[in-house]
Amino acid sequence: MSTNWKELQSKAIDALRFPMAVAVVMLHHGVTLMEGATGPLRVSLIIFQEGLCRLAVPCFFFISGYLFFNKLQDWSWGEWTRKIKNRGSTLLVPYLLWNLIAFFAYWGFARLQGNGISLHQHFLNNGGLRLFWGVNGDLPLGVRSAPCDQPLWFIRDLMLFTLFTPLIHLFLRWIKGFGALAIAVFFLIVPGIIPEGFVFYITGSAFQLQRKNVAETLWPRRTAFYLLSAAFLVALFILFDNEYWRRLVKNAFLFCGIAAAFCATSQLLQRDRIRIHPFLARSSFFIFATHEILILHDFARPLVNAVLPNSGAFWPCLEFFLTPAMAVGICLGLLFLMERLIPRTTALLTGSRKIKPSYS
């Protein structure tokens, strides 16, 4: 029976959403654990924190670039305007609301702990209006400059890249896939010049503008992607203490790892080994936006640490996995309740996200 590649690609994208959101939560938890880590914890952090979980945000950028240029292979200002207006409700409005929620949540939590800071001083401490694009005052681009709700730097950058899509289209139609390839090679060789998010956004855009189905294009090379991804993970572990080679190997792993993730997900879907749960698929944005607003660091982590023993080499490793799992569980429970009690507000906060074919 012939494969419906369009449907398979859509299902693969939707199936990746939830695990990638979980990976982001693990990233934000593990970043505080690497210094001084030894034994099983160090091994787990290198494999997951510095390896597998690092695929999440680049993969989201890749998918976003790919989906934006759907129906825009041949440029149309009317279609572009429609997409920009759509991103206003799915990205901009939730972005502004979640940053406001984070701002008031952090202030309220501090007041409950006895820190009598005024709302005005809290506003100034968050950079004033910079709380919406970069609290620390740096150039609002990349992970090092984050808004009040820190994980949403991704949404901020995504909105910025979206505004530049007419130029991206012109660039990629002019020199075709070679433009994306040149940017990727430059990103690998020269550190810190091209933002990571832009590299993967433009790579996804190039796939769409070349009218390539991601699942179908990558499928014949799936074994090579699996082997290369595994080899780069091993190399990352061996070369981790060398800053230059660690960066080079990690960036190379991102490209192979995203390809391997698409292939593995497509393969599992074809064999009916996994099913897409609509609730989990649509929960990815909510998890992404909420997990750092008091949930991960101020509730889940202290609770897990209060239960687990504080000695031995095994328990810190277990805590690395349990804390994100609890944070994700709290986010899912909160979303479940909100969808039933305040559905219209929840739709506004999540950009009215409903599970639907990603190619539509």
Estimate the strand proportion: under 5%
Number of strands: 0
Structural class: mainly alpha
Average pLDDT works out at 90
- Which radius of gyration do the C-alpha atoms yield? 21 Å
Helix content: over 70%
Write a brief caption for the model.
This protein is mainly alpha-helical and 360 residues long. It has a domain at 1-59 and 225-360. It is 71% helix and 0% strand.
Task: Explain what the structure shows.
This protein is mostly helical and 360 residues long. It has a domain at 1-59 and 225-360. Helices cover 71% and strands 0% of the residues. It has 16 helices and no strands. The protein has helices at 5-30, 39-49, 56-68, 77-112, 119-125, 153-163, 165-175, 177-189, 196-209, 214-218, 222-238, 243-270, 278-282, 284-307, 314-341, 343-349. The longest helix has 36 residues, at 77-112. The two termini are 24 Å apart. The model is unreliable at 355-360 (pLDDT under 50).
